[in-house]
Amino acid sequence: MSNRIKVVVVGAAGRMGKTICQAVLDDDGGGLDLVGAVDTADVGGKVPGSELSLEDSLEKVIEETIPDVLVDFTNADAVVKNADLASAAGVDAVIGTTGIPAGDLDRLKGYTEQRKSNILYAPNFAIGAVVMMNICRNIASVFDRAEIIELHHDQKIDAPSGTAVMTAEIIGDNLKPDPLEEVEKYKGARGARVKGIPVHSVRLPGLVAHQEVIFGLIGQTLTIRHDSIDRSSFMPGIILAVKAIGSRAGFSYGLESFLGLSKVTT
Ligand code: NAD
User: Fold this and answer.
1) Omega of the bond prior to 205 within 30 degrees of 0, cis?
2) I need a labelling partner for 224 at 20 to 30 A (CA). Which of 126, 143, 149, 179 fits?
3) How far, in Å, from the CA of 96 to the mean position of ligand 1?
4) Is the pLDDT of residue 265 over 50?
5) How far is the CA of 218 from the centre of ligand 1 (A)?
6) Which of 152, 200, 210, 226 is catalytic?
7) Which phi and psi angles does 18 have, rounded to 5°?
8) Which distant-in-sequence residues (6+ apart) come within 8 Å of 137 by Cβ?
9) 249 CA → ligand 1 middle, Å
10) pLDDT band at residue 266 using 50, 70 and 90 as cut-offs
11) Could you tell me if the CB of 134 is within 6 A of ligand 1?
12) Does 243 qualify as catalytic in the annotation?
């Protein structure tokens, strides 16, 4: 029996999907085979560097290629249906699509409980961003307040970013800021509150994916910043996840535990 891992990428014509297809093809020597590329756009177009064409039916691609892992970078409306199809066929899923509502995350968890397939949902596959979230947990336990500024390219649909939400959840579990007496003269000036932590979203051309977490304590601040300056930053984490998901039973939230860092609880 071959121990190579057969991979299907969904959202393969998108900005992330194209880079992921290339990263999987480049990992040929590492044991990955790109067997399918699915998208609702550019159907019939070739995946650069391969003989594969973009298909629009995930169901058909799963049936024909019997993959081990599905990688989903589509959008919040498409992701649950894709994960349902994968998990019903016993295919593990690595999901990077963000903006997934909490109820839909519960449905993904449910699939892994009812069926024999594993799912990882990680809002950020950049290793530096995962480390940033991990160290925020410790910092939060000794600081009084924290605010998050996330900055992304202007094509990003969802706000705040999945990374900001996950970071706020981690901080909010460890730091409960007292309410401030403040007047918001313009609605939104103080950002959105996620677990009580203010989150400010910036969208500009020229940006990729960036986040600053500013902690405050009397007489001092501590700022942690992570920058993804190119989509290649996400590839090592995605390839690691594709190779590891087969041995990660059930539903995983975030890449922390895959890197040997302590696990995030939801
Ligand atoms: P994009 O718009 O460039 O690509 C999305 C692709 O999905 C498009 O080609 C679109 O046609 C396709 N698509 C939409 N619905 C589909 C469906 N039902 N079936 C198949 N394909 C479908 O977006 P992007 O910049 O590549 O980002 C994709 C997602 O990944 C977003 O949610 C983004 O926030 C997220 N993202 C996550 C990380 C991470 O590390 N987790 C990093 C970057 C981006």
Assistant:
1) no
2) 179
3) 8
4) no
5) 42
6) 152
7) -60, -45
8) 170, 171, 173, 174, 262
9) 25
10) very low
11) no
12) no
Pairing verdict, β 209-217 and 220-228: antiparallel
Tell me the pLDDT band of 263, cut-offs 50, 70 and 90.
low
Structure confidence at residue 3 as a pLDDT band (50, 70, 90):
confident
Q: In this prediction, what percent of the chain has a pLDDT beyond 90?
A: 94
Residue with tokens 């019903």: 88
Distances (CA, A) of 124 to 53, 109, 129, 210: 28, 18, 7, 11
Which residue among 15, 16, 82, 240 is best mutated to probe the pocket of ligand 1, counting the most ligand atoms within 8 A of its Cβ? 16
Side-chain-side CA neighbours of 96 within 13 Å: the count stands at 25
Q: What is the value of pTM for the model shown?
A: 0.93
pLDDT of res. 80: 97
